[in-house]
Amino acid sequence: MASAFAITSLPAAYATPSATAVISEVYGGGGNSGATLTRDFVELGNAGSAAYDLAGYSVQYLPGAPSASSLWQVTTLSGSVAPGGRFLVAEAAGTGGSTALPTADATGSVAMSATSGTVALVSGTTALTCKTAADCAADGRIVDLVGYGSALVREGGGPATGASNTAAVARGAALADTDDNAADLSAGTLSPVNSAGQTPGSGDGGGDGGGDPTTPGTVRVHDIQGTTRLSPLAGQTVSRVPGIVTGVRTSGSKGYWIQDPAADADTRTSEGVFVYTGSAAPTVAVGDSVLVSGKVSEYYPSSTSQSVTELTAATATVLSGGNALPAAVAVDATSVPGAYIPAAGGGSIEALALEPAVYAQDFYESAEGMRVAFSDARVVGASDAYGELWVTVKPDENATTRGGTLYSSYDRPNTGRLEVMSLDTTASFPSADVGDELSGTTTGPLDYSTYGGYNVQATQLGTLVDNGLKPEVTRRQKGDELAVATYNVENLDALDAQEKIDRLAHGVAVNLNSPDVVALEEIQDDNGATRDGTVTSEATLKRFTDAIRAAGGPRYQWRYIAPTDNQDGGEPGGNIRQVFLFNPQRVSFTDRAGGDAVTATGVVKTRKGARLTASPGRIAPASDAWDNSRKPLVGEFVFHGETVFVIANHFTSKGGDQPLHGRYQPPSRSSETQRQAQAAEVNTFVKSLLAADKNAKTVVLGDLNDYEFSQTVGTLTVGRVLTPLITTLPAAERYTYVYDGNAQTLDHILTSPAVTHYDYDVVHINAEFADQASDHDPQVVRIDVGRCRKG
Q: What would the pLDDT profile of 241-260 be if each residue is shown by its tens digit?
């Protein structure tokens, strides 16, 4: 029979007493010590003469003394309240009590206080935001509101009093509503009644809409997931959602995934969802058929990431075990689209309808929480200390010469990359290098995290095939070649383990074949991250150069300028800086006093060409471009009678940029502003060298923290004063770093126009390997200085 509508438009504010639907009884002591009933409840009543339709309505709860972080908790409703009838909403259960509620007409999981709180009947399912009586009185969605105990949000002069573990607050039989909670409700014996007129001890006390607790409710997983990135049921409580457990996570963010084997016809809606159990280990097993009740939530791993749709505060009924798992979604070059992600003018893409046949990230979102599978995938990001690696399911997508996937454009991110983790905590995670292969099938639920985005939580991991990637060794420079290298040694300090120092030293002496000049980035002070005012690096450099010597390299000397304490960014207390190592048997350093942390070096024109006013020196250290960042180190070297200027850089990091996979598209790269300013300072300095001597041989190098196609590098080369040598390599070789499975260029060597004869090499020894001494690869340029002079 069709229901009659007593109210056909949004109700007035609750300052107008309701003559129809009201909150008739509230009880928050269910399951507590001394309680008889096993769970909390809210009872609605209808004083009108027609049925009151509750479709699209909710019951919401707020603590009695809400804090700034307190949120209204929502339980969605359906059905109707008969004229003169009651409607029972069951809330959270406790461990105490002996008597069940009658079969509930709606079920939530809100744990209400026994003594103080606020309950509202709301036309709508979006959580209220008011936290004062006055603000709530102005919210036209509120049909009725009851504050009890000492609740700050209440109707009239005061809250209803007397609620406890054994007493509810309730209206009289006439359901009178004068909008004064203290006058309208009083404490008394528990008397919950459902729409069928049942009282405690009758019914099963657990269903929604009076259903059997072993029968699925009306909501399916695809209803929860919806057709956008946000659930249409977010904030609502759902009951008896059916699914098969496909994966269980017992560490970290504990919980399990369920998937409905009865999929709908909409490719946009996922059939899987994560059930979050908090600190409690899940009590279900893979293959269990379950009915899950809980609150639909959107969890954001970070402020700019996409969200993960979850069920929280959940309870599960296991119907059977050992069931076959739903078929996995194939993730391969055919199924994953070529476009990466939709754009929203820099805004959120969350409200956009998913297009899984167009965008790779939409495809992954449409399978969030579902079992996915890929086969025979190449590793493009080495295993790390957290038990993660990256594969590509598109073997032909921007492949590098050594097995990785090249990141070569902001506009066309690689779509085939996928992070892989293992849910099997009893097995060791494979140690994989770039170019290795996960042979066979890898299967598991598809999850999302702030680090890397979509990932496979593998319940079955392919077999690792070692394809034998080896660290490179560059050739030794010839007698008339000046070899200049750059190497980010990742926060090296004198307290580091000898193994780390020895491995980095081997990289210089053997893999780089002992360059004449090495610009080092991330040399820390002598006690590392200890914050005690220490800024010198003498002990650090002594240990490092001794290790290079022991590895067969030369006895290097060094030059640097110590920073002002805690003014150059990096690890707090570490005082990282750039350092020049040089082999005095091959090249000499021109020392000119006057350079320090705050004094800029300049350029002077002489009869013999340009020279520095201070060597070593810093470029414009007072400029805002270097705030909380490393200042460039400039040195004047002489090789075979020719002066060569070397500028070592470590530009500010990408910290603060929005992720490629985040919800804001296209992502903001806010850190570029400072790097572009830094690039402009270096460009201006190089121009001053060339103004003093157009044939000045200049090498600009270091960790620029930006790509060869970035505006940072573009700014650095304005006026064609520098050539980025990475662009002289074949495209498939242009990388020095691997991040989230993207082989990319962050480290650079650039040369001035007078450097016409050179041989350049990126030496891959770290970034592609699970076992790495640094996360950066070094590079070297060998300059035939004599031929450059004649050229």
A: 999 999 999 988 899 999 99
